[in-house]
Amino acid sequence: MRSSRRHPLLVPALLCAFAVLAARPTDAADTGADSGADSGLSAQVARLYEDAAVATQQYEAGLREAAEQRTRARRLETLLDRERGEIAALHEDLGRIARAQYRDGGGMPLTAQIILAQSPDELMRGQHVFSRTNLAVDNAVEKSRRAEARLAADEEKAASAWRELDRRNTELAVLKKGIEDKLEEAREQLQDRADASVAAGACRGAVRLDQPRTRFTQPWVAPLETYELSAGYGSGGARWANRHTGQDFAVPIGTPVRAVGAGRVARVSCGGPFGIEVVVEHAGGYYTQYAHLAAVAVDQGERVSPGQWLGQSGTSGNSTGPHLHFEVRVTPETGSAVDPGPWLTSRGVPLG
Question: Which of 150, 152, 144, 137 is CA-nearest to residue 91?
Answer without folding.
Answer: 144
